Amino acid sequence: MGKTSKDKRDIYYRRAKEEGWRARSAFKLLQIDNEFNIFEDVNKAVDLCAAPGSWSQVLSRKLNENHKDASEKPKIIAVDLQAMAPLDGVIQLQGDITKVSTAEKIITYFENSKADLVVCDGAPDVTGLHDMDIYIQSQLLLAALNITTHILRPGGTFVAKIFRAREGSLLYSQLKIFFEDVCCAKPSSSRNSSIEAFVVCKNYSPPDDYIPHMLNPLLTHEPLNYEDLKDVNKYVVPFMVCGDLTQPDSDACYPLNFGGGEYSYSEPIQGPIDAPYEEAIKMESSGSKPKNMKKSTDTNEDCNKPQSINDFKKKAQANVNLVDNSTDNSSILCEDITNLQITK
Ligand SMILES: C[S@@+](CC[C@H](N)C(=O)[O-])C[C@H]1O[C@@H](n2cnc3c(N)ncnc32)[C@H](O)[C@@H]1O
């Protein structure tokens, strides 16, 4: 495949590189903001599942524009399991959004006050098994909601990725318990062919007796019949397409000179750090095979055995390097399983 083929196929990918965004997802948040004005009066923001960091870039740019004349600089914290290259003015926390310790670190950084805005573009690695992927995405959204109940101030805004699928209506209802306004947004930079959309939840107002926790009792494994749902559980959210008709179609291919100007190839803004596939590439080029892995001709299925989330996390954690910080205005917090170090 040629270097330019992805540029031809995906105009938002190409524009992201031209405009300096680390990922094309930046346009999704920008288009959501155009419709919902999510950055208004926001001084403290949290980007959950932030790597490689294009949403943090948008937050940094927008919040700093809004606070040009203010004496207090905006505070932005980005959380991800994976290491992320430093971004000026963004604090990074390498950690898991399902852990209460992550919520505590965020509150500590905000000096015991809470965030005005929490965004989450979290996505687990897709398995290709449709139902499984939808289920895991719903669980991640609920984990994001859980941590948000610890870190968002009353009246604050929460934006998160959702897969529009069977459990969707129940998820919306559960969000509606915590937020006055819940809307489903589909930015035009998000492919029509994808079931991805975003919930935009405004005016955080949890029930009076609600005690934030990190357990996840909200989504059950029971089969769901929409007709059986009642009252708040039958809430139908408004659906809003964001991005006007002048925006390119994210499912279409465009010629490289689309839009007039002369095309020249741009490299991606930020390559992956510690990509999990790097070891496999090294091993493939050196002709070796991973320890404990049997030859592909082996009939034993051991090497294809599913691993538990904990095994997976342990292995991932073993590969995590503590990231040192280099820029003046940013610092990186790197969490290992039991303790967290702050490097400045
Ligand atoms: C689609 S990417 C986010 C892209 C990002 N919004 C951007 O614009 O650059 C999804 C991220 O979710 C992160 N993620 C998935 N599960 C997580 C968890 N439990 N805690 C923290 N991050 C998680 C992944 O590591 C991955 O980097």
Automatic annotation (TrEMBL):
<dbReference type="Pfam" id="PF01728">
    <property type="entry name" value="FtsJ"/>
</dbReference>
<dbReference type="GO" id="GO:0005634">
    <property type="term" value="C:nucleus"/>
</dbReference>
<dbReference type="GO" id="GO:0002181">
    <property type="term" value="P:cytoplasmic translation"/>
</dbReference>
<feature type="binding site">
    <location>
        <position position="80"/>
    </location>
    <ligand>
        <name>S-adenosyl-L-methionine</name>
    </ligand>
</feature>
<keyword id="KW-0819">tRNA processing</keyword>
<feature type="binding site">
    <location>
        <position position="96"/>
    </location>
    <ligand>
        <name>S-adenosyl-L-methionine</name>
    </ligand>
</feature>
<dbReference type="InterPro" id="IPR029063">
    <property type="entry name" value="SAM-dependent_MTases_sf"/>
</dbReference>
<dbReference type="GO" id="GO:0106340">
    <property type="term" value="F:tRNA (guanosine(34)-2'-O)-methyltransferase activity"/>
</dbReference>
<dbReference type="GO" id="GO:0002128">
    <property type="term" value="P:tRNA nucleoside ribose methylation"/>
</dbReference>
<keyword id="KW-0808">Transferase</keyword>
<dbReference type="InterPro" id="IPR015507">
    <property type="entry name" value="rRNA-MeTfrase_E"/>
</dbReference>
<dbReference type="GO" id="GO:0005737">
    <property type="term" value="C:cytoplasm"/>
</dbReference>
<comment type="function">
    <text>Methylates the 2'-O-ribose of nucleotides at positions 32 and 34 of the tRNA anticodon loop of substrate tRNAs.</text>
</comment>
<protein>
    <recommendedName>
        <fullName>Putative tRNA (cytidine(32)/guanosine(34)-2'-O)-methyltransferase</fullName>
        <ecNumber>2.1.1.205</ecNumber>
    </recommendedName>
</protein>
<feature type="binding site">
    <location>
        <position position="53"/>
    </location>
    <ligand>
        <name>S-adenosyl-L-methionine</name>
    </ligand>
</feature>
<keyword id="KW-0963">Cytoplasm</keyword>
<feature type="active site" description="Proton acceptor">
    <location>
        <position position="161"/>
    </location>
</feature>
<keyword id="KW-0489">Methyltransferase</keyword>
<feature type="region of interest" description="Disordered">
    <location>
        <begin position="284"/>
        <end position="308"/>
    </location>
</feature>
<dbReference type="InterPro" id="IPR028590">
    <property type="entry name" value="RNA_methyltr_E_TRM7"/>
</dbReference>
<feature type="binding site">
    <location>
        <position position="55"/>
    </location>
    <ligand>
        <name>S-adenosyl-L-methionine</name>
    </ligand>
</feature>
<feature type="compositionally biased region" description="Basic and acidic residues">
    <location>
        <begin position="295"/>
        <end position="304"/>
    </location>
</feature>
<feature type="domain" description="Ribosomal RNA methyltransferase FtsJ">
    <location>
        <begin position="21"/>
        <end position="204"/>
    </location>
</feature>
<keyword id="KW-0949">S-adenosyl-L-methionine</keyword>
<feature type="binding site">
    <location>
        <position position="121"/>
    </location>
    <ligand>
        <name>S-adenosyl-L-methionine</name>
    </ligand>
</feature>
<dbReference type="InterPro" id="IPR002877">
    <property type="entry name" value="RNA_MeTrfase_FtsJ_dom"/>
</dbReference>
<dbReference type="InterPro" id="IPR050082">
    <property type="entry name" value="RNA_methyltr_RlmE"/>
</dbReference>
<comment type="similarity">
    <text>Belongs to the class I-like SAM-binding methyltransferase superfamily. RNA methyltransferase RlmE family. TRM7 subfamily.</text>
</comment>
